[in-house]
Write a structure and sequence with these properties.
Strand content: 35-45%
Oligomer: single chain
Structural class: alpha+beta
Number of strands: 9
Strand order of the largest sheet: 5-1-2-3-9
Low-confidence stretches: 113-117, 127-131
Mean pLDDT: 84
Order of helices and strands: HHEEEEEEEEE
Shape: globular
Distance between the termini: 18 Å
Length: 131
């Protein structure tokens, strides 16, 4: 599925609601760090369900806080977004039971059908090579 990153970053509240609905559809039983680039403040979190071939990835730019386990079971993520309009957007993603927390300026997500995660906006170095 093609991800419209520009649309997701323009309307963070809509993105938050659509992401929650997608997580509800997937019903993930595991979460794991997929990519973390300290230098470029880039992070991707993978949510998946054992026995299913698809997964959901949450990608971020401008990560200024990241803590917690690198993988865990039974993810229960909470998403808070603030600073709409002309002010800087700030996302806070938490899973209190797992001890996971992440704060960033840009968040977008997409489904993985087994193709394309190493290219485009979901590439590990997307923010450094202009994609």
């Amino acid at each position: 599925m093609q991800t419209d990153v520009d649309a997701q970053t323009r309307d963070p509240e809509k993105t938050r609601l659509e992401l929650l609905a997608a997580i509800g559809c997937l019903e993930p039983d595991s979460a794991q760090w997929s990519t973390y680039n300290v230098t470029h403040h880039r992070f991707i979190l993978r949510l998946y369900r054992d026995g299913r071939s698809d997964d959901l990835r949450i990608a971020t730019f401008h990560v200024d806080y990241l803590a917690g386990p690198t993988n865990w079971s039974s993810p229960a993520l909470q998403f808070t977004v603030s600073g709409h309009g002309d002010s800087r957007v700030e996302w806070l993603v938490r899973d209190e039971s797992a001890g996971f927390a992440m704060r960033c300026g840009v968040l977008y997500w997409g489904w993985n059908d087994g193709r394309g995660w190493g290219r485009g906006w979901f590439a590990a170095d997307a923010d450094s090579n202009g994609k």
